[in-house]
Design goal:
This protein has 115 residues and is of the alpha+beta class. The chain is built from three helices and six strands. Helices cover 33% and strands 30% of the residues.
Amino acid sequence: MDTLELQGIANDLAVNLPGADVEHRLDPNWDLYKVRGKVFMLMTDLPGRPVMILKADPDKAVALREQYADITPGYHMNKKHWITVEGGDTVDEKLVKQLVTDSYQLVAGERPAGF
């Protein structure tokens, strides 16, 4: 699955989470997804490739980077607490939804209803 598809899936989920807001910045081109005024997901286009940047539990972030070739340390963020997700063979819709939900929960401090 390519990253544009994954970004669409992540966006559709994130905008429907309780209290989530999206802030669009044009220079540079970033979409910031926030809950309670704090960022839980970012989307942007790095040179030649779109990416999603998500908050992650530090221990899980290490395991995710080891398990999935398309998950790397958080671009332009604290590498311990953030991951970057790109499209590829190792990332699918289910994983993206789980990563977005986990990131939201880390920032909001609660699991959204129905997840």
